[in-house]
Design brief:
With about 325 residues, the chain is an all-alpha fold. It contains 9 helices and no strands. The protein is globular and about 75 Å long. InterPro entries: TAS2R. GO terms for molecular function: bitter taste receptor activity; G protein-coupled receptor activity.
């Protein structure tokens, strides 16, 4: 009987495939964001300062590193029925997810203000003001995320204790009504907490794309050659922003669907959903690495040094073997 029960609890082959993909995807994303944090953090320590855009990118990479780690731990702990640990990790995940949304929004707003060519006085004021306000924006995002996480977790704990107390006294009808009321009360809060930074991100990205499109049309009118380096740079920037917008919008929509519980997924499709959800963040981080000259240069140096290091170690081993065999 125990063997049959354990066999029934074993995941199917399709579930195992999605689990392995999710594991590899999470590890790759953590390595990628860890690389960003190490490169920019080393420069921060060496120069005692960091440009405002790189400061936001480094904080965003650190939050995404933690986000992928929390998603990895919570998913595999829920697989092995560690319910109490999953609830605590869920609280940390909610805090880090809120922080990630705000940092992504500020990064999009920063790029929009710095790169766009709008002549409105508000944009000139923002260009002067935003760089000086980045540390305050990062601190404000941290405070908002802490408040959001604490309020959500404390509300859920109080709700669960109240429902458990009512059920223990046999009042199941009132417990169900309280659960329904809390669902309609807390759900708009969770959606609003994610929607505000996402709308800021969406508006900033669309404004930047509109500005780049207008500037690209002006450049093509004066320089009809499609192989002009400046024209190619603007075209690549538009393509990166398009991928950037699609990937992060898919992540936001997948979280909204998960929070609202629009669909009920089976085990194998749960892992497939996790793969698709976190693929958007992973690809977005890849775009950040490839679009930054500093990170791209560090990545090339790292990839170039790895074969040299292996060749150097191999040559030392060959020399040692030659010395041992020589009379």
């Amino acid at each position: 009987m125990n063997l049959e029960t354990s066999w029934e609890k074993m995941p199917s082959s399709l579930t195992l495939i999605f689990m392995v993909i999710f594991l590899l995807e999470s590890l790759a994303a953590m390595s990628q964001n860890g690389f960003i944090v190490v490169v920019l953090g080393r420069e921060w320590v060496r120069c005692r300062t960091l440009p405002s855009g790189d400061m936001i990118v480094s904080c965003l990479a650190a939050s995404r590193f933690c986000l992928h780690g929390m998603a990895l731990l919570s998913n595999f702990m829920s697989l092995f029925n560690f319910c109490s640990q999953v609830s605590y990790l869920g609280a940390l995940w909610e805090f880090i997810n809120s922080l990630t949304f705000w940092l992504t929004a500020w990064l999009a707003a920063f790029y929009c203000v710095k790169i766009s060519s709008f002549s409105h006085p508000i944009f000139f004021w923002l260009k002067w003001r935003l760089s000086r306000s980045v540390p305050r924006l990062l601190l404000g995002s941290l405070i908002i995320s802490v408040v959001t996480g604490i309020s959500s977790v404390s509300g859920n704990i109080i709700l669960m204790q109240m429902i458990a107390s009512l059920r223990s006294h046999g009042n199941h009808t009132l417990a169900d009504r309280i659960r329904t009321f809390s669902w309609h009360f807390f759900l708009p809060q969770d959606v609003l907490a994610m929607s505000i930074p996402f709308l800021l991100f969406l508006v900033s990205t669309l404004l930047l794309m509109f500005s780049l499109c207008r500037h690209l049309q002006q450049m093509r009118a004066h320089r009809p050659g499609p192989h002009d380096p400046s024209t190619q740079a603007h075209t690549m920037a538009l393509k990166s922003l398009t991928f950037f917008l699609v990937f992060y919008t898919s992540y936001f929509l997948s979280l909204i669907i998960t929070v609202m519980k629009i669909t009920t997924l089976q085990d194998q499709w749960h892992w497939a959903w996790e793969v698709v959800t976190y693929a958007g963040i992973y690809l977005h981080s890849s775009i950040l690495v490839l679009s930054s000259p500093k990170l791209r240069k560090a990545l090339k140096m790292r990839l170039w040094k790895a074969p040299e290091k292996r060749w150097f170690i191999a040559s030392i081993n060959i020399n040692n073997q030659y010395q041992q065999t020589s009379p």
